[in-house]
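Annotated sample (chain length 190).
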Amino acid sequence: MNINQIKEKLKKDERNKSYSKRGIDPIFQINKDSKILIIGQAPGKKVEETGILFNDKSGERLVDWLGIDIDRLHGPEFSIIPMDFYYPGKGKSGDKAPRRFIAKEYHPYLLENLKNIELTILIGAYSQKFYLKDNFKKNLTETVKSFEDYLPKYFPLVHPSPLNNRWMAKNPFFEKEVLTALRNLVGEIL
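Output written by the structure step:
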Protein backbone atom coordinates (compact mmCIF):
# COMPACT_ATOMS: atom_id res chain seq x y z
CA MET A 1 0.00 0.00 0.00
CA ASN A 2 1.47 3.36 -0.96
CA ILE A 3 1.50 6.45 1.29
CA ASN A 4 -1.55 8.09 -0.30
CA GLN A 5 -3.56 4.88 0.07
CA ILE A 6 -2.56 4.63 3.73
CA LYS A 7 -3.62 8.25 4.35
CA GLU A 8 -6.99 7.64 2.68
CA LYS A 9 -7.53 4.48 4.72
CA LEU A 10 -6.75 6.44 7.91
CA LYS A 11 -9.13 9.26 6.97
CA LYS A 12 -11.95 6.78 6.30
CA ASP A 13 -11.34 4.80 9.51
CA GLU A 14 -14.37 5.34 11.78
CA ARG A 15 -12.08 5.73 14.80
CA ASN A 16 -10.58 8.86 13.17
CA LYS A 17 -13.94 10.32 12.17
CA SER A 18 -13.78 13.30 14.54
CA TYR A 19 -10.45 14.38 13.02
CA SER A 20 -11.52 13.84 9.41
CA LYS A 21 -14.71 15.86 9.99
CA ARG A 22 -12.54 18.78 11.16
CA GLY A 23 -10.25 18.46 8.13
CA ILE A 24 -7.29 17.18 10.18
CA ASP A 25 -5.05 14.85 8.20
CA PRO A 26 -2.96 12.07 9.75
CA ILE A 27 0.51 13.36 10.61
CA PHE A 28 3.63 11.36 9.78
CA GLN A 29 6.73 11.84 7.65
CA ILE A 30 7.80 9.08 5.28
CA ASN A 31 10.82 9.37 2.98
CA LYS A 32 11.38 6.13 1.09
CA ASP A 33 15.17 6.55 1.04
CA SER A 34 15.58 7.59 4.67
CA LYS A 35 18.20 5.87 6.79
CA ILE A 36 16.91 6.90 10.21
CA LEU A 37 13.39 6.34 11.51
CA ILE A 38 12.08 8.14 14.57
CA ILE A 39 9.07 6.61 16.29
CA GLY A 40 7.65 9.09 18.76
CA GLN A 41 4.53 9.52 20.85
CA ALA A 42 1.63 11.47 19.34
CA PRO A 43 1.50 14.94 17.81
CA GLY A 44 0.87 17.78 20.24
CA LYS A 45 -1.63 20.57 19.67
CA LYS A 46 0.90 22.84 17.91
CA VAL A 47 1.98 20.02 15.59
CA GLU A 48 -1.65 19.25 14.81
CA GLU A 49 -2.18 22.89 13.82
CA THR A 50 0.88 23.02 11.52
CA GLY A 51 1.04 19.40 10.32
CA ILE A 52 4.82 19.43 10.89
CA LEU A 53 6.24 16.91 13.37
CA PHE A 54 8.53 18.21 16.13
CA ASN A 55 7.58 21.78 15.19
CA ASP A 56 7.89 22.85 18.83
CA LYS A 57 10.31 23.07 21.79
CA SER A 58 10.66 19.28 21.76
CA GLY A 59 11.85 19.47 18.16
CA GLU A 60 14.45 22.12 19.02
CA ARG A 61 15.86 19.84 21.69
CA LEU A 62 15.66 16.73 19.51
CA VAL A 63 17.75 18.20 16.69
CA ASP A 64 20.34 19.25 19.26
CA TRP A 65 20.41 15.70 20.63
CA LEU A 66 20.83 14.30 17.11
CA GLY A 67 23.55 16.82 16.20
CA ILE A 68 21.65 18.09 13.14
CA ASP A 69 19.41 21.05 12.24
CA ILE A 70 15.63 21.16 11.83
CA ASP A 71 15.81 21.22 8.02
CA ARG A 72 17.76 17.99 8.02
CA LEU A 73 15.22 16.38 10.39
CA HIS A 74 12.50 17.15 7.86
CA GLY A 75 14.66 16.18 4.89
CA PRO A 76 15.02 12.90 2.98
CA GLU A 77 17.33 11.19 5.49
CA PHE A 78 14.66 10.92 8.21
CA SER A 79 11.21 9.39 8.50
CA ILE A 80 9.03 10.07 11.54
CA ILE A 81 6.16 7.84 12.59
CA PRO A 82 4.27 8.78 15.77
CA MET A 83 2.49 6.13 17.84
CA ASP A 84 -0.73 8.01 16.97
CA PHE A 85 -1.09 10.19 13.88
CA TYR A 86 -3.48 12.61 15.59
CA TYR A 87 -3.37 14.78 18.72
CA PRO A 88 -5.15 12.65 21.37
CA GLY A 89 -6.16 15.63 23.55
CA LYS A 90 -5.29 16.79 27.05
CA GLY A 91 -5.18 14.39 29.98
CA LYS A 92 -4.78 14.95 33.73
CA SER A 93 -0.99 15.32 33.59
CA GLY A 94 -0.17 16.24 30.00
CA ASP A 95 -1.47 14.85 26.73
CA LYS A 96 -3.55 11.67 26.60
CA ALA A 97 -1.86 8.42 25.59
CA PRO A 98 -1.64 7.53 21.89
CA ARG A 99 -4.41 5.20 20.73
CA ARG A 100 -2.92 1.69 20.44
CA PHE A 101 -4.71 0.65 17.26
CA ILE A 102 -2.74 3.16 15.17
CA ALA A 103 0.64 1.49 15.79
CA LYS A 104 -0.79 -2.00 15.70
CA GLU A 105 -2.76 -1.65 12.48
CA TYR A 106 -1.07 1.16 10.53
CA HIS A 107 2.64 1.08 11.36
CA PRO A 108 3.20 -2.13 9.36
CA TYR A 109 1.86 -0.43 6.20
CA LEU A 110 4.24 2.49 6.64
CA LEU A 111 7.23 0.31 7.52
CA GLU A 112 6.75 -1.61 4.25
CA ASN A 113 7.65 1.64 2.46
CA LEU A 114 10.95 2.01 4.35
CA LYS A 115 13.60 -0.37 3.00
CA ASN A 116 16.80 1.53 3.89
CA ILE A 117 16.42 2.13 7.63
CA GLU A 118 19.69 1.63 9.50
CA LEU A 119 18.51 2.93 12.89
CA THR A 120 15.13 3.32 14.59
CA ILE A 121 15.04 5.83 17.44
CA LEU A 122 12.28 5.00 19.93
CA ILE A 123 11.18 8.13 21.79
CA GLY A 124 9.28 7.58 25.03
CA ALA A 125 7.86 4.59 26.83
CA TYR A 126 4.89 4.04 24.47
CA SER A 127 7.07 3.30 21.45
CA GLN A 128 9.64 1.41 23.53
CA LYS A 129 7.06 -0.90 25.11
CA PHE A 130 5.42 -1.50 21.73
CA TYR A 131 8.59 -2.27 19.75
CA LEU A 132 10.87 -3.73 22.42
CA LYS A 133 8.08 -5.81 23.96
CA ASP A 134 9.54 -8.10 26.67
CA ASN A 135 12.96 -6.47 26.25
CA PHE A 136 11.66 -3.21 27.75
CA LYS A 137 13.37 -2.93 31.14
CA LYS A 138 11.49 -2.23 34.39
CA ASN A 139 11.03 1.43 33.40
CA LEU A 140 11.98 4.05 30.82
CA THR A 141 15.11 5.16 32.72
CA GLU A 142 16.54 1.64 32.80
CA THR A 143 15.65 1.11 29.14
CA VAL A 144 17.38 4.32 28.04
CA LYS A 145 20.38 3.58 30.28
CA SER A 146 20.68 0.16 28.55
CA PHE A 147 20.55 1.65 25.04
CA GLU A 148 23.52 -0.45 23.89
CA ASP A 149 21.48 -3.62 24.45
CA TYR A 150 19.18 -2.62 21.58
CA LEU A 151 21.76 -1.58 19.01
CA PRO A 152 22.19 -1.67 16.06
CA LYS A 153 18.43 -1.76 15.33
CA TYR A 154 16.90 0.42 18.05
CA PHE A 155 18.00 3.40 20.14
CA PRO A 156 15.64 4.23 23.04
CA LEU A 157 15.37 7.86 24.19
CA VAL A 158 13.41 9.86 26.72
CA HIS A 159 11.04 12.38 25.12
CA PRO A 160 12.82 15.68 24.38
CA SER A 161 10.00 17.69 25.97
CA PRO A 162 10.98 20.53 28.33
CA LEU A 163 8.77 18.68 30.85
CA ASN A 164 11.63 16.18 31.16
CA ASN A 165 14.18 18.72 32.45
CA ARG A 166 13.89 17.29 35.97
CA TRP A 167 14.42 13.75 34.67
CA MET A 168 17.55 14.88 32.80
CA ALA A 169 18.91 16.62 35.91
CA LYS A 170 18.40 13.42 37.94
CA ASN A 171 20.04 11.25 35.27
CA PRO A 172 23.38 12.81 34.27
CA PHE A 173 24.34 9.58 32.45
CA PHE A 174 21.90 10.61 29.73
CA GLU A 175 23.83 13.64 28.54
CA LYS A 176 27.28 12.14 29.13
CA GLU A 177 26.80 8.68 27.67
CA VAL A 178 23.55 8.36 25.76
CA LEU A 179 23.58 11.63 23.80
CA THR A 180 27.28 11.27 22.95
CA ALA A 181 26.64 7.80 21.53
CA LEU A 182 23.52 8.98 19.70
CA ARG A 183 25.29 11.91 17.99
CA ASN A 184 28.18 9.67 16.96
CA LEU A 185 25.86 7.01 15.55
CA VAL A 186 23.69 9.51 13.66
CA GLY A 187 26.85 11.14 12.28
CA GLU A 188 28.16 7.79 11.04
CA ILE A 189 24.87 6.87 9.35
CA LEU A 190 24.43 10.24 7.65
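Annotation: Residues 173-189 form the longest helix (17 residues).
Annotation: The mean pLDDT is 96.
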